[in-house]
Amino acid sequence: MPNFVLIIIDDLGYGDIEPFGSTINHTPNLCQMAEEGMKLTSFYATAPLSTPSRAGLMTGCYPKRVGLAYGWKWDTMMPGDPYGLNPDEKTIAEVLKDIGYATGCFGKWHLGDQPEFLPTKQGFDEYFGIPYSNDMWPRHPRAGSGDIWNFPHLPIVHNDKVVDKVENMKDQAELCKLFTEEAIKFIKKNKSRPFFVYIPHAFIHNPNSAREEFMKNAKNAREAQIEEVDWSVGEILNTLRELKLSNNTLVIFTSDNGGGPVSANKPLRGRKNSSWEGGMRVPIIAWWPGNVPSGSTCDKIATIMDFLPTFASLAGAKVPEDRIIDGKDISELLFGNIDIQSPYDAFFYYWQNDLQAVRSAQWKLFEDGRLYNLEKDISESQNVAELYPTIVVQLEGYLEQIRNDIGDEEQVGKNCRPVGIVKNPQTLLPREDYSRNDSNTNK
Ligand SMILES: [Ca+2]
Fold first, then answer.
1. What is the pLDDT of residues 297-307, one digit of tens each?
2. Are strands 371-373 and 407-408 parallel, antiparallel or unpaired?
3. How many angstroms separate the alpha carbon of residue 112 from the centre of ligand 1?
4. Count of alpha carbons within 13 Å of 367, Cβ hemisphere only?
5. CA of 354 to the centre of ligand 1 (A)
6. DSSP element (H, E) containing 312
7. How confident is the model at residue 220 (pLDDT cuts 50, 70, 90)?
8. What is the pLDDT of residue 436?
């Protein structure tokens, strides 16, 4: 049974790393990882935002199917949110734990901070990290504007206990190192049995800060963060090499959604929080020496929902059969049989609960009728709907199918499952008193 290490960067844009074209950020470890592994160039997050994207990753389903396309009052989970990933869902961690894997989560969870929803209740033996985004703290620009924005201090949680808090930018700067070290400890501890290690970094989400050794050579904090993330990947891969586990470990490096305002998403159009390619197509490298062909590239459609069925297939675990799973087993693509068809007839772009577009083969149709040929026009610059009326009709058919299946805004889909909800949710640390006004700065 192979081991799995799944590294997710927060808000890393398509063109933010050298293997995907960055000429700004220096990422030697990711370059080596790509030389020894595979880049997938049409790989999609299931949402242009954190919580729904992670819901898709954990469950192998469209976030709307599992009730997490939108949060309770906001588009992602907030501190003390009554919503969370329904414990009745079967996560990747549960699928693998069932057949004897050691499972660890080290980083940002963001699928609910109530005791019922934390990683240790969702299939992870061990959890060390922050329960939601690193900007949900008293220094958030909107902090103190009432209600859900009265943020408590940002807790660091070990299993189900708060063990520390992130109080300042120096603490923020330590998060990449902290999660990397905890993940490596877990790998070493479990080296003799199959393991699944999930590392959802807090980096490179704002507020941006990295350790001094990275800050001192970088033009800005964000660039320093990308280079520290690259360092982290090097540490993980070197640990696997030292333990002689590289031939038995599939390592994935990717992002939860497209890059934000200052990200390099080129050549893609748009950014985080949009259904342009720049919002949802993310960089990804798959590494498994001797199994994933070195220096390869695959442009077939694949998605963040595919990890669950793919890891299950590689491990010999069962994908849940009592419910619809949207993700596909892409192991053949990873093994280099890239001439086979993408397992997707259609992939759907949801923004919150709103169905916005569909991709099938090279075609992407927006609900309003704009059609783009992504093979010839990756930047979505030219609407060719008038030239391909039959393609438009075919893709409209896919949109209609998914509307009936999981819905679109007010239209309720027939195959959605309920979100997890708790009564009387509590924040993990007390909400802050904002009568002082000196803390409302993001600096
Ligand atoms: Ca994100």
1. 999 999 999 99
2. unpaired
3. 15
4. 15
5. 18
6. helix 307-315
7. very high
8. 54
At position 383, the amino acid (one-letter code) is N
Ligand 1 centroid – CA 120 distance (Å): 22
111-129 pLDDT, tens digit per residue, is 999 999 999 999 999 999 9
Residues written for the chain: 443
Going from the C-alpha of 394 to that of each of 44, 106, 365, 371, the distances in angstroms are 21, 43, 10, 12
Ligand 1 centroid to 387 CA: how many Å?
A: 36
- pLDDT surpasses 80 at 342: yes
Going from the Cα of 202 to the center of ligand 1, the distance in angstroms, rounded, reads 9
Residues, beta carbon < 5 Å, ion ligand 1:
10-11, 50, 256-257
CA of 175 to the centre of ligand 1 (A): 16
Q: How far is the CA of 169 from the centre of ligand 1 (A)?
A: 19
pTM of the model: 0.96
What's the CA gap between 383 and 378, in Å, rounded? 12
272-317 per-position pLDDT tens digit: 999 999 999 999 999 999 999 999 999 999 999 999 999 999 999 9
